[in-house]
Write a structure and sequence with these properties.
The chain has eleven helices and 20 strands. The strands form three sheets. Strands 4, 14, 15, 16, 17, 18, 19 and 20 form an eight-stranded mixed beta sheet that branches. It has an eight-stranded parallel β-barrel with strand order 5-6-7-8-9-11-12-13, surrounded by five helices. The longest helix is centred in the middle third of the chain and has 17 residues, at 223-239. It has two domains: 15-44 and 293-404, Lyase, Ornithine Decarboxylase, Chain A, domain 1 (Beta Barrel); 67-287, Alanine racemase (TIM Barrel), CATH 3.20.20. Helix 2 (45-60) packs across helix 9 (265-275), helix 6 runs parallel beside helix 7 (193-202) and helix 8 packs parallel to helix 9 (265-275). Helix 3 (80-89) links the parallel strand 5 and strand 6 (93-96). Helices cover 27% and strands 24% of the residues. The chain is α/β, with parallel strands linked by helices and 406 residues long. It is elongated, with a radius of gyration of 22 Å. Bound molecules: pyridoxal-5'-phosphate. The site of pyridoxal-5'-phosphate has 16 residues, from helix 10. Pyridoxal-5'-phosphate (PLP) binds next to helix 10.
Length: 406
């Protein structure tokens, strides 16, 4: 990521400098790093809760007779204390994408009826395991999946994940799109849909939900594409008289750089209302990123400072393997100083991890104050698709996770 950041655009009430020292969820970040050690992911339960409430309040504005539901996509962050906190809050169910995720959610206190399940490429063993859970809200993403579920659960209700051949993602990043001009493995396409309905009927399945998830990270700028996706989905809804709910997936994004405008949830909700509520459909939603990403920071220890040719490097004790999303999807992942320096005294640094791969640079040319006396650095937006995607590459997979309660 080459973009220079000049402002502290990311500051907010629970993540900001006070007397020049970075605070997160009401705690001095330097104290957290000293006590917890590094690398450490620190999550704010209150921030996740606030994010959920913001989405739920927006959903309330769309009206309709039936209750709209929110399922937290646990693939974003499955830290058990966080899941149990969410269960106890009563604010959401869970979106799971593998039998092991279902088992983990049950272990954290959720029951099967709280879990919406949507996955791809399921094996016979996967279907057998899932079929044991009574009440699980199963969404089939292929003809194969409808058939296999129908054989095990004839006469039950299902959702069908559809592929509208249109997608939406942060900055139109194709790596983050699950549907679009390129054929993807996700969901049932329009031309397959009559057969999907026939297969469901042959097993006595009732299709009560249409589900789609077409991409990740979209912001206000991408709302016109979002609107186009919803319109394409209406065709599927109109084919099935038994459909009562539409699951609009996740994909809601958070700002990553100063120029990103936060998602305007009011406009977002208006688009949903226009397309679905007026057709008496209830809406389900399963965001991960929007709820968890900006609720986490990654604390890293500084290992060295050195100029190599014209570049000033800051070495840190954690690499891309413990938070791979930025490297996979070319997403900016901003390091911030724990001590606020004067903006006219900042200079550019490359912040580099401890993995023997050339791509292991967290950020290029990030403007930071003098770091000579600093022991730690924090990466913001580390609450989602970070620890949950970590690997043990170079045997440097050891990390710690902490949940800060309100
Ligand atoms: C089916 C499905 N639902 C929801 C999500 C959550 O997406 P996000 O974290 O972007 O909101 C994903 C993410 O890949 C997904 O595949």
């Amino acid at each position: 990521m080459k973009e220079q950041q000049t402002s502290v655009w990311w500051q907010r009430a629970d993540l900001c400098y006070q007397q020049q020292h970075l605070q997160f969820a009401g705690r001095p970040v330097a104290d957290l790093a000293r006590q917890f050690g590094t690398p450490a992911f620190v999550y704010s339960a209150q921030r996740v809760r606030d994010n959920i409430l913001r989405v739920k309040n927006a959903l309330l504005t769309i009206g309709g007779q039936q209750q709209h539901r929110l399922f937290y996509a646990m693939k974003a962050n499955r830290f058990a204390p966080l899941l149990t906190y969410l269960k106890q809050s009563g604010l959401c169910g869970i979106d799971a994408c593998s039998p092991s995720e279902v088992e983990h959610a049950l272990g954290c206190g959720f029951s099967a009826k709280d879990i919406s399940f949507t996955a791809t490429s399921l094996s016979p063993q996967d279907f057998d395991a899932l079929a044991r859970y009574d009440g699980l809200l199963f969404n089939a993403d292929s003809l194969h999946s409808i058939r296999e579920w129908g054989r095990r659960k004839p006469g039950s209700e299902i959702g069908i994940r559809i592929n509208p051949a249109a997608g939406v993602s942060r900055a139109s990043n194709e790596l983050l799109q699950y549907a679009g001009p390129l054929t993807t493995k996700f969901g049932v396409y329009q031309e397959q849909f009559p057969e999907a309905m026939a297969v469901a009927a042959s097993h006595g399945l009732t299709i009560s939900r249409i589900h789609f998830h077409t991409g990740c990270g979209y912001l206000t700028e991408q709302l016109p594409q979002w609107q186009a996706v919803l319109q394409k989905c209406l065709w599927f809804v109109e084919q099935v008289p038994t459909v009562q709910r539409v699951n609009i997936g996740g994909g809601l994004g958070v700002p990553h750089v100063a120029s990103d405008q936060p998602l305007d949830l009011k406009k977002w909700a208006e688009i949903i209302k226009e397309n679905f509520t007026d057709r008496h459909l209830a809406v389900d939603i399963e965001p991960g990123d929007y709820l968890a990403k900006d609720a986490g920071i990654l604390l890293l220890g500084i290992t060295f400072l050195e100029q190599k040719q014209q570049t000033h490097f800051i070495g840190v004790d954690g690499g891309f393997n413990i938070a791979p999303e930025p490297a996979y999807y070319k997403l900016p992942f901003q390091p911030v100083s724990l001590v606020e320096g004067a903006s006219d005294k900042q200079s550019p640094f490359h912040v580099a991890g401890n993995i023997n791969e050339a791509l292991d640079v967290w950020y290029e040319n990030i403007l930071l104050p003098d770091m000579a006396d600093q022991k730690y650095i924090a990466l913001i937006n580390a609450g989602a698709y970070s620890a949950s995607m970590a690997s043990n590459h170079c045997m440097r997979g050891h990390l710690r996770e902490f949940l800060l309660l309100p």
